[in-house]
Amino acid sequence: MSEETREITIVDDGALPADRYIDRELSWLAFNQRVLELAEDETVPLLERAKFLSIFATNLDEFFMVRVAGLKRRIVTGLAVPTNVGRAPTEVLAEINRTASELQLRHARCFAEKVKPQLADAGIHIVEWEALDDADREILTNYYEQRIYPVLMPLAVDPAHPFPYISGRALNLSIRVHNPNTDKIEFARLKVPQMIPRYVRVDRRESDDNVRFIALEELIANQLDGLFPGMKVIDDHVFRVTRNEDVEIEEDETENLIQALEKELLRRRFGPPIRLEISDDMDEATLDLLIREFDIDEEQVYTLPAPLDLSGLFGLASLRRPDLKYQPHIPVTHPAFRTSSPSDKPDMFAAIARREVLVHHPYESFATSVQAFIEQAATDPDVLAIKQTLYRTSGDSPIVASLIKAAEAGKQVLALVEVKARFDEEANITWARKLEQAGVHVVYGIVGLKTHCKLVQVIREESGKLTHYCHIGTGNYNPKTSRIYEDFGLFTTSSEIGRDVTKLFNVLSGYAIETDYDRLLVAPLQLRSGLLERIEREAEHARAGRPSGIRLKANSMVDEAIIDALYRASQAGVPVDVWVRGICSIRAGVPGLSENIRVRSVLGRYLEHSRIYSFENDGERDVFIGSADLMHRNLDRRIEVLVSLAEREHLARVDRFFGFAFSDDVSSWRMLPDGSWQRRVVSEEGEPLPDLQDLVMTDRTQARRAR
């Protein structure tokens, strides 16, 4: 059952109020508002603000493609089950439309009134055709004729030409032309090519200090006469449709998963429209035609000032303007993996054998830790086998290349590839087949469950015995995203963890049913109950007057059972700190419910992605890192793993990390009792508060120098 069609289980607890949850969809919109606030923040470097405008737009697209699509499907199919706030999906959908409309207009104003003028002041001009002189127009017309005109495909709409299929997320021009032969007004649609840069550079000089760009659709719109010879172009407008692009795979034992997924991906392209964005100058006749052809309600129409789809602003980030970007952070090599000379390669196995190593990306380099570990394993003659889970990685990944190299060298290599990773399905199918062709044993996990855990196990023969080297992480094995995603990873030769990981890979690749693990908590059989037991244990400690405390860091928190357990722990006197990036359905600081709960959110140059679960446990700290968020899908419908940390140094490091996030002297968003978020960026004395991610980078750099 998909995330959208599953029924939500709400614990019936008379001691807790009925309105104790924040709606998950509205909470997600509040998260994207926090992204928008970074774009509005004039203390953030200007090109970074443009990037946050782009991220906001991309986030909102995915929200409509998946979350809003799910609500619409439930309503249309009659699966209108209650939301976790006890309201009908129709009510929630109406509020989503209102809130999303307000945010999109605010987003457009931020670009038009703040970011665009300030970019111009800094020498980066986004210009209109009317502002160009004849020489500029000649340059752009030549570019258009050579690079754009040959790939354009204007499509007429008339009795002989039915309304064309409009692909999701593509920009389109609606064009009205006058036909002198029939004296009729005709309609045509023109797709703006997606393989051409969205912002076309007017100037060809090498320097990026004073540059001009024109939006691709603006350039095309001023060349339409050549596309419709003999016709008179009356007007043109920009529009864009978002479709239901969620993928639902009904897995069974009789159908090949890859074939089923490929069929579903084909269906995705033709999903029903969910949102129509139009420029605010569109005429009523064209709008009526679009509404009729897309078969949507007026509530699904979002009227916005041009330009639509500000995700294209991401392309401006490549400009060589360091003065308009964050000061660079250079990842350091973890002290355990450093060598006396930069030209020397470390012995990863020797370093991990000395003691467990906790790495923190991107502050500590992925390339000199995880990537180096797998690369050495692929070529080490004493390595007999490599097992790895792959959820998202890049097609040209050195990780995949290393697995192929290992298989070609005769090692046993197992890759658990999750081909159902949302929006990466096609890419994952492609490189899964490359792995198979190279001799890697590729498996796709367990029917009905996504494999989301992040595991590598290397089996190495040492002095006649087999040693298990393991890496368990919070993030994907993707060298590209490792530079912008914040994640932890643990390297270990622990025999307990080695046995646990061996058992789990046997579950994933065979028919084993295993619930007995020593240092792992594994979903879906163990993880939820393990967390609930530990939350209740903290409540018992608090009631007995013993030291207690809970600190959680996750991307999302919506699971009702976990939230209710945290409420009860708070009422027992347990201090609860929740650090969440995105959706958060728990309420903080509500009298009689959650006085002891604090909730923080941190957004910045890096995407906070690690998951940490820390329990004070009467001074015997119980701390886990891993892949699982506090969501129904993670706890009940995925293979997830948390691993316990044992080294005192690692526990202290996690404490320090939480200390930054919950300090009154560090910038963050704080949840208020009414569920709203307040950003605190200056001290009571009016001084700017430091950025958490800058502090962590400084902390890691100083730790490296201290050794």
UniProtKB/TrEMBL annotation:
GO terms for molecular function: ATP binding; metal ion binding; polyphosphate kinase activity. The active site is at 452 (phosphohistidine intermediate). Its cofactor is Mg(2+). SUPFAM superfamilies: Phospholipase D/nuclease, PHP14-like, PPK N-terminal domain-like. Its EC number is 2.7.4.1. The keyword Oxidoreductase does not apply. Pfam families: PP_kinase (PF02503), PP_kinase_C (PF13090), PP_kinase_C_1 (PF17941), PP_kinase_N (PF13089). GO terms for biological process: polyphosphate biosynthetic process. InterPro entries: PLipase_D/transphosphatidylase, PP_kinase, PP_kinase_C_1, PP_kinase_middle, PP_kinase_middle_dom_sf, PPK_C_dom2, PPK_N_dom, PPK_N_dom_sf. This is Polyphosphate kinase. The gene is ppk.
